[in-house]
Amino acid sequence: MKKIGVIGAGAMGSGIAQVAAQNGHEVILSDTNEGTLAKSKKSLEKVMNRLVEKGRRTQEETEAIQARIQYTTELKDFAGTELIIEAIVERLDVKKSVFAALEQIVSDTCILASNTSSLSIASIASACQQSSRVLGIHFFNPAPLMPLVEIIPAVQTSDAVLHEAKNLIDSWGKVSVVAKDTPGFIVNRVARPFYGEALRIYEEGIADMPSIDWAMKQLGGFRMGPFELMDFIGNDINYAVTESVFQAFYNDPRYKPSFTQKRHAEAGWLGRKSGRGYYNYTEVSTNAPANEDEVLGQKIVDRILAMLINEAADALFWNIASAKDIDLAMTKGVNYPKGLLAWANEIGLDRCVAAMDELYDEYREDRYRCSPLLRRNAAQGVSFSFD
Ligand SMILES: NC(=O)c1ccc[n+]([C@@H]2O[C@H](COP(=O)([O-])OP(=O)(O)OC[C@H]3O[C@@H](n4cnc5c(N)ncnc54)[C@H](O)[C@@H]3O)[C@@H](O)[C@H]2O)c1
Predict the structure, then answer these.
(1) Among 12, 90, 92, which residue has the most ligand 1 atoms within 8 Å of its CB, making it the best to mutate?
(2) Model pLDDT, residue 1
(3) Residue 303 in 3-state DSSP?
(4) Ligand 1 in reach of 94 Cβ (< 6 A)
């Protein structure tokens, strides 16, 4: 494939265009907003200059990368592209109209992909006459740095299109995983308890936020604590994803959003970007220290980890992806210290089931139901296998 199109020059589209250009493709990058295009060009220039300063790329290489990207406001410039990745606003109606318009411009063999985080690929594909050419190619932010890419075939997508897209993304040095077209795909589904259970532990008054973060980092081995990570992502964004996953799963209590997060978002305490979230980033000294109680800390880690493992096992139970891809997704997409299914094998599936059953017995809430696959494998003494 020579020529790649990227629609939307925001955070994701700019990053994806950079990745494609770094891999030798001619890239057409479009946006309806000329100012955004200019900003995108400028920020790529900065990134490239930094790479030269650090000695990672030569001046000639970075100039060639930049020269390969053509910026435009016109969709008609996408004629001649062989793959287009759409990264515009997260609205189904807008995406559908863009996909329908694109089909009038490109050749019959051009693959059309969406970088959507939460919309159904089948719905987007339904806007096209040749819907077998449409699939999801979901990058993580920032796209040039995060290795994971989720590839999501819709029910309409042809096998040939799926394989061609996957091979191309692999050839870019990315780690691709294939996920079913279901809410949150792999990462945004399996990661929900990292936030949700931490918020619940806080709301029950079991521990405060710094102590939960301390436990997950110090004892759990995670790079960031749940509250630090929510502040980093933005409470508005993280809350919106949780709410949309909850609704998309027909209000399954496992994904229930939290009032604490809602109120923080409503208060404008969005996290780092607004100077204040769960933590205060302008007056750091006002943040309470963590209670470094190892017994309490281990309880917190065990509870959140049991919920994460259960979610990963359930994703496998519903054939959302293979065991190997579920573990790769969590280590390469959100930097978990271990794949959750491998972690379950290490802990022992019996212990994971017991942790879930203990929570269920205490709360009698469907939120804490153990995945049938986790229970079945534990009963049969079978570990998760990654063949
Ligand atoms: N931000 C993330 O962390 C992240 C991660 C993975 C996937 N995504 C998904 O990627 C997509 C883009 O997200 P983002 O964070 O880059 O958004 P963004 O708001 O930074 O950028 C979107 C860009 O699309 C442009 N745009 C809107 N309508 C357009 C149209 N009809 N034609 C051309 N350009 C148009 C806007 O002007 C804007 O520049 C969304 O679908 C989002 O769900 C985001």
Answers:
(1) 12
(2) 73
(3) helix
(4) yes
Which DSSP string corresponds to 48-107? HHHHHHTTSS-HHHHHHHHHTEEEES-GGGGTT-SEEEE---S-HHHHHHHHHHHHTTS-
**C-alpha R_g of the chain:** 22
Query: Is 126's C-beta closer than 6 angstroms to any atom of ligand 1?
Result: no
Helix H segments across 172-253? 187-190, 192-203, 209-214, 226-233, 235-248
Q: Which atom of ligand 1 is closest in space to residue 15's alpha carbon? A: 16
Contact 303, 267 (CB under 8 A): no
153: helix, coil or strand?
Answer: strand
Q: Is the CB of 9 under 6 A from ligand 1?
A: yes
Contact 354, 374 (CB under 8 A): no
Ligand 1 contact via 89 beta carbon (within 6 Å): yes
* Ligand 1 centroid to residue 12 C-alpha, Å: 6
Q: Which residues of the chain have pLDDT under 70?
A: none
Q: Residue 230: what pLDDT?
A: 97
- For ligand 1, atom 2, the nearest C-alpha belongs to 141
Tokens of 108: 């019959």
Domains of the chain, each with CATH number or no CATH: 3-181 (3.40.50.720), 186-387 (1.10.1040.50)
Q: Is 167 in the pocket of ligand 1 (CB under 6 A)?
A: no
Q: pLDDT at position 118, please?
A: 86
How many angstroms does the Cα of residue 364 sit away from the middle of ligand 1? Answer: 41
pLDDT tens-digit profile of 62-84? 999 999 999 999 999 999 999 99
CA–CA gap between residue 272 and residue 281 (Å, rounded): 6
Buried b (16+ CB within 10 A) or exposed e, 354-372: ebbeebeeeeeeebbbbbe
Give the residue numbers marked as catalytic: 117, 138, 150, 188
